[in-house]
Prior knowledge:
The chain has 463 residues and is α/β, with parallel strands linked by helices. It has 3 domains: 9-94, NAD(P)-binding Rossmann-like Domain (Rossmann fold); 101-303, UDP-N-acetylmuramoyl-L-alanine:D-glutamate ligase (3-Layer(aba) Sandwich), CATH 3.40.1190.10; 312-452, Protein-Tyrosine Phosphatase, Chain A, CATH 3.90.190. Helices cover 33% and strands 21% of the residues. The protein is built from 16 helices and 20 strands. The protein has helices at 17-28, 45-54, 84-92, 99-106, 120-133, 148-154, 167-170, 197-205, 277-289, 294-303, 332-341, 363-369, 380-387, 399-409, 431-445, 450-454; strands at 9-13, 32-37, 57-60, 72-75, 96-98, 110-115, 138-142, 160-164, 180-183, 216-220, 234-239, 246-249, 252-257, 260-265, 312-316, 322-325, 346-350, 370-376, 393-397, 415-418. Strands 7-8-6-9-10-11-12-13-14 form a 9-stranded mixed sheet. The protein has a 6-stranded mixed sheet with strand order 15-16-20-17-18-19, sandwiched between helices. Strand 1, helix 1 and strand 2 form a beta-alpha-beta unit. The longest helix is centred in the C-terminal third of the chain and has 15 residues, at 431-445.
Amino acid sequence: MHGPYDQVNALVLGAGASGEAAALLLVSRGARVQVLDEGDGAASAVVAERLRGAGASVRFGVGELPDEPFDVCVTSPGFTMQHPWIVACRTRGLPVISELELGARYWPGRVLAVTGSKGKSSLVKLCADTLNRAGVTASPAGNYGIPLSRLALEQPELCWAVTEVSSFQMEHTRTFSPDIAILLNLQVDHLDRHADMAEYKALKLSLFAAMRSGSVALLPAGLTHEGRIPEGVELLRFGTDAGCDWACEKHAVTGVLRGDARRVSLQGSWFDNAVLSAAAAAGVAALIHAGLSDVQIEAGLTCFEPLAHRMQTVAVSRQGVRYINDSKATTLAATAAALRMARGRVRLIAGGLLKEKELDGVKELLTQTVEKVYLIGRCAEQMFQAWSASVPCEECGTLERAVDAAQREALPGEIVLLSPGTASFDQFTSYRERGERFTERVRAVADLDERFFSEGKKDKETQ
């Protein structure tokens, strides 16, 4: 199969996972490939060796773009529209595409794409796991999972690429055309990268722009699409409203496909709660349109295990205190969702590097659900000033001190919840490191119920 980037002279920006995948795919198609990375190369030495072994040129610590007549530039999502290299490409008239765009042009299978502000990765995992459990080969791809370029190169025999798509990827994506596409939700996020919510929403909606007639677009109830859904694409609404095409109510998702009424039970699954029910409706609708039966989807829901750092119960004490790691909550909206999901009084560990300015929106929920807030990181004082009149707050500074304080004060039946509502980069390298440090400290200082670990127990009640 010939593709549009066979035998071109290509520039690839970034030697991370996306850049490596793009470079290897291009080399396999006979392209001459040069990879540029701003780092010193120490952290990417193994990647550089692989790329050079495959035939690509790799350069680190580069200031300006090489003065060469490239045919295309493939950029990793970490490069902003204002980055000097991207600006230089525009000045030269050099076409810039995303790694997602490149991979999609060579991916022979079908695509189920998921975008949104929160919950994308979990929904991608649910759909990929459920398809595989039903005997339909699939892989997570894109922003969560394997870069689509690598999937196209290494596993082209799979039926489905269940692809998480970020707004960063869509900045340089024009021809990506999923068979089924979901916009899960839209919340304030990434305004440090995008000019405003209008730009952010437009990038999310651009996921649908190149979809072909007969494909399926799933949008949440009430979200305007501003004419971005092409003619011939089947637009369906999901949510908790009975008027939706796919509605979640009374612990089940219901809808109609080609005249057949469908009903998929959520009873006892991780998604059987008010916070995740809309996501469940979207996932069920997508899987039904992908050809699965109600029974196959119910099996996937029942067996679903959540991703790490997302309302993940990591320990239970002998006194019945539950410790939940929700380090992935990097906005206050995500923290609010965590508080609504937790069944029991909460001792909340919050704080870090704020991504938003408005703190008052969660105060009422804090008073309803939280015994005390233990504040960490750069914004601890700011959160204390905003919340301490409504709920007891303590400035702990570090995560370790916050865990220690919460562990000392927690009562039987309560939940110690790490759901920071902020980015992690003031004290940690990532939300993953933050979650791992929380888990390590809990297991070091709490009097734990060893049965939780020996049974490999999953806390579906609080998830």
